[in-house]
Design a protein that fits this description.
The protein is mostly helical and 102 residues long. 46% of the residues lie in helices and 8% in strands. Strand 1 and strand 2 (8-11) form a beta hairpin.
């Protein structure tokens, strides 16, 4: 289905995750974050860049793996994305919902 995000028609699934990562840009990420109640900071963007890099490498994501990455401590990951850190950060990053998320 299509949804207008940052004035662009973007393909998303029924949960609101982008279905085509190539459509993502920072403005789209910002708007998704605001919709989720998050004001992005440099700390948020470091996490988003890490998630996108792992996605490009086809590396499966988990909260534990992110905590061990050195990018962000697990407690800070929950502080940055309190409504569900991996689900929300993945949505902002424009990548599919990780398999480890229900």
């Amino acid at each position: 289905m299509q949804k207008v995000i940052a004035s662009l028609n973007i393909e998303v699934n029924d949960e609101g995750y982008l279905t085509d990562f190539s459509q993502w840009n920072k403005a789209i990420g910002e708007e998704i974050a605001l919709y989720e109640g998050i004001v992005m900071t440099d700390e948020h963007w470091k996490v988003i860049e890490y998630l996108q890099d792992q996605h490009r490498k086809n590396v499966p994501l988990s909260i534990r793996k992110i905590g061990k990455s050195g990018v962000v401590a697990i407690k800070d990951f929950y502080r940055l994305f309190p409504k569900g850190p991996l689900k929300i950060s993945s949505k902002i990053a424009g990548i599919p919902k990780p398999v480890s998320c229900v």
